[in-house]
């Protein structure tokens, strides 16, 4: 998953309204542990199982909590609805407009039931896919990929032919070519298959299936060719139209870009693989103007960081760009165009944690995650969110 995040305070910005998943927990007694930089285990009670708006009456998407980690300062906890008071006129929020696909489809491989996760659309008509084994109650578990030449039977008499692993030496993700044997009166490809037979990818920590609308952000714009993200760019989920209007009235600007993210790699802990992105000229101009005028550029999600940094030169000047990016943002590389990152809470071994270090520094990340555990923040795409801001006094230090 691209993000994480949970239930929070009510109107007025309080953070004491603990409901649902946080009820009954006691800080320090929830089983988690901090070892070195990050937690070593996420207590089950801190896994967000349903969207925030389903946790109690009167709650909305923005009823989550916001952990703020300013580089070089102690973290603080707020209601997400307080975000307009935490930003300044002239700041720019860079948002990912990729729409979430109904990317999970039931299928058969030989005599075995499988679930196909459609991850990434290639330029040659193939799709990168992950095969999963059904685990009951709508969830799945890992299974080996392949073999080459295997034919996956899809609904409606359609097929996928597995061709080769996406990366040498790994077999979780495979390039697969659709083979449609049944004629259709209208053009029919994978996007049409997903709309007709797909459902959102769901992980075992969630309580029940959710409609696709629960996985769309307020910024999502469907692509004309049916491309999208296999999993929600979840850092944008807590935003509502009302909150966006409040931010705009405060003088905060929004700069859209697109990065179609593939399936998460939480089992394999793989580094990010290439993804398709587009940074329009208007966004480049907004970001460059903000930086020149002293405003902060805050990426909403790790996907927005990856896309924007792929379009920035060594001085941090952003240009219109697009195509495929294989950029991995690390503390050694650093960030050039981004001053802050709004993201969810990530798995202990997620490669995205290196990006958080690159933005705010190791000390800020360590303090933030210790605070998230102590204050019972919720993890994953329906959970709480974390705002990390660059420490202007670090001067390139990553520790």
SSE layout and pairing:
Blueprint lengths: L32 E3 L2 E4 L23 E6 L5 E4 L3 H4 L5 E5 L7 E6 L2 E10 L5 E10 L2 E4 L8 E4 L3 E8 L7 E8 L9 H8 L43 H9 L3 E7 L15 E5 L1 H12 L4 E4 L1 H9 L10 E5 L14 E4 L8 H9 L1 H13 L10 E5 L10
Parallel strand pairs: 3-18, 5-13, 5-15, 15-17
Antiparallel strand pairs: 1-2, 3-4, 6-7, 6-10, 7-8, 8-9, 8-12, 10-11, 11-12, 13-14, 14-16, 17-18
InterPro entries: QueA (IPR003699), QueA_dom1 (IPR042118), QueA_sf (IPR036100)
Keywords: Cytoplasm, Queuosine biosynthesis, S-adenosyl-L-methionine, Transferase
Organism: Streptomyces virginiae
Overall 3D shape: globular
Strand content: 25-35%
- Low-confidence blocks of residues: 1-37, 394-399
Described by strand count, sense and barrel closure, the largest sheet is: 9 strands, mixed
Q: What's the count of strands?
A: 18
Count of folded domains: 2
Q: What count of helical segments does DSSP give? A: 7
Task: Give the structural class.
Answer: alpha+beta
CATH topology of the largest domain: QueA-like
The helicity comes to 10-25%
Strand order, largest beta sheet: 4-3-18-17-15-5-13-14-16
CATH architecture of the largest domain: 3-Layer(aba) Sandwich
**CATH class category of the largest domain:** Alpha Beta
Order of helices and strands: EEEEHEEEEEEEEHHEEHEHEEHHE
CATH homologous superfamily label of the largest domain = QueA-like
Overall residue-averaged pLDDT value: 85
The radius of gyration computed from the alpha-carbon positions, rounded to a whole number of angstroms, is 21 Å
Report how far apart the termini are.
Answer: 27 Å
Keywords: Cytoplasm, Queuosine biosynthesis, S-adenosyl-L-methionine, Transferase
Organism: Streptomyces virginiae
Pfam family, one: Queuosine_synth
Protein name: S-adenosylmethionine:tRNA ribosyltransferase-isomerase
């Amino acid at each position: 998953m691209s993000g994480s995040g949970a239930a929070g305070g009510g109107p007025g910005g309080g953070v004491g309204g603990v409901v649902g998943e946080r009820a009954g927990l006691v800080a320090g007694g929830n089983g988690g542990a901090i070892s070195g930089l990050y937690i070593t285990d996420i207590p089950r009670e801190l896994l967000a199982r349903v969207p925030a708006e389903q946790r109690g009456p009167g709650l909305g998407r923005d009823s989550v909590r916001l952990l703020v980690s300013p580089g070089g300062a102690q973290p603080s906890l707020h209601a997400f609805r307080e975000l307009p008071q935490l930003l300044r006129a002239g700041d720019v929020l860079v948002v990912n407009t990729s729409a979430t696909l109904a990317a999970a489809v039931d299928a058969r491989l030989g005599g075995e039931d499988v679930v196909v996760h459609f991850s990434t659309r290639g330029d040659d008509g193939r799709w990168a896919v992950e095969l999963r084994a059904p685990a009951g109650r709508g969830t799945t578990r890992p299974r080996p990929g392949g073999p080459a030449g295997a034919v996956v039977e899809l609904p409606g008499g359609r097929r996928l032919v597995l061709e080769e692993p996406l990366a040498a030496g790994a077999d979780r993700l495979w390039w697969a070519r659709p083979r449609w044997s049944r004629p259709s009166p209208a053009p029919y490809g994978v996007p049409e298959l997903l709309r007709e037979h797909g459902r959102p990818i769901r992980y075992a920590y969630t309580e029940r299936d959710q409609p696709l609308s629960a996985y769309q952000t307020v910024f999502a714009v469907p692509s004309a060719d049916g491309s999208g993200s296999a999993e929600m760019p979840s850092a944008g989920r807590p935003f509502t139209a009302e909150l966006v209007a409040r931010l705009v009235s405060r003088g905060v600007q929004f700069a859209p870009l697109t990065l179609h993210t593939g399936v998460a790699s939480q089992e394999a802990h793989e580094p990010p693989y290439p993804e398709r992105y587009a940074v329009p000229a208007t966004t480049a101009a907004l970001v460059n103007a903000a930086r020149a005028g002293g405003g902060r550029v805050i990426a909403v999600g790790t996907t927005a960081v990856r896309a924007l940094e792929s379009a920035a030169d060594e001085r941090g000047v952003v240009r219109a760009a697009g195509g495929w990016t294989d950029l991995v943002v690390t503390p050694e590389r650093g960030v050039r165009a981004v001053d802050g990152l709004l993201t969810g809470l990530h798995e202990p071994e997620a490669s995205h944690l290196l990006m958080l270090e690159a933005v705010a520094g190791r000390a800020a990340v360590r303090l933030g995650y210790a605070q998230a555990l102590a204050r019972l923040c919720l993890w994953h795409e329906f959970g709480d969110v974390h705002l990390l801001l660059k420490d202007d006094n670090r001067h390139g230090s990553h520790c």
